[in-house]
Each structure stands twice: as structure tokens, then as C-alpha cells.
């Protein structure tokens, strides 16, 4: 199945644009996403699902600013598709109902791999900066120790 054509024809990209431009609706979408993330059968793509949610959250909280808006809207559209019950295979059908959701998640993460890889790089850079700050804070704690206050009998 050509997911790009299906996705655009089905209006999911437009839905992503709508949600991306209405933060209150996006907040509602995340409430649904939270429920969706606990579904049985999602294990195979759960990490990708949660990663997409983290990407969207970081964009909308202002933590990540290096995104492409058009890519963002399609990725949000993928999230809308996955958590909306009105997709190709209803989710109430055990296992089968999640197949199309998994396919959309896999498609979105592959189609927008460059966008998501830039976000992964941002996360690793941010983690390195946080680690450096934590190491610096530890070093400052050592400098703050007043060795004259420690009785020699308690050393060593």
C-alpha cells in the first residue's frame, strides 16, 4: 500500500496540520495517545510511538526548535490516525486492528527518518550538555568543602 497517497487522500496530513495549529486539540490528542500506549499488542512499535509523542511534545513545549513544520504536521497526522478509532481496521478487533496503526507508525518513522534523526541528535546533544553541567556541579561541590572544619581524627 502506498501510505503517502493514502495518508494525503484520507486527510490525515490535514488533520495533523489542524492539531499542530491548535494546542488545546493537541493536548486532547495526547490524552488519547496516553490511553493508546497501554494497549496490548502495541509492543512491537511502542518505542516508535512513544518517540513520536516525545518529539511532538518537545516541539510544542519549545524544547526542540529545529523542526520542519511540514514534516511535523504529517507526523502529528500519523499520531491522529493511530489514536483515532475511525481508521481502516477498527482497533476493537484484537491484534488485526493494530496492524494498520503499526504500519502507519513504521511508515512515518521511515518517511521522516531525517527529521527524527535530527531530533535524536538534538536529544543526545542535550544529554551531553546536561551531563557536563552535572559534572561541573559536582566539581563545584568539592571546591565548597571547607577542610578546616573536618577534624583530622575523622579523616581517613
List keywords for this structure.
mainly alpha, single chain, 69% helix, 156 residues
Summarize the structure.
The protein has one domain (3-143). Helix content is 69%, strand content 0%.
Task: Kindly describe this structure.
- The chain has 156 residues and is an all-alpha fold.
- It has one domain.
- Helix content is 69%, strand content 0%.
- The chain has seven helices and no strands.
- The protein is elongated, with a radius of gyration of 22 Å.
- The mean pLDDT is 79.
Q: What is the overall number of helices?
A: 7
Give the topology string: H per helix, E per strand. Answer: HHHHHHH
Mean pLDDT: 79
Which class of secondary structure composition applies to the elements?
A: mainly alpha
Which outline best applies?
Answer: elongated
Give the termini separation.
70 Å
Task: Return residue spans where pLDDT drops below 50 for at least 5 consecutive residues.
Answer: none
Give the radius of gyration: 22 Å
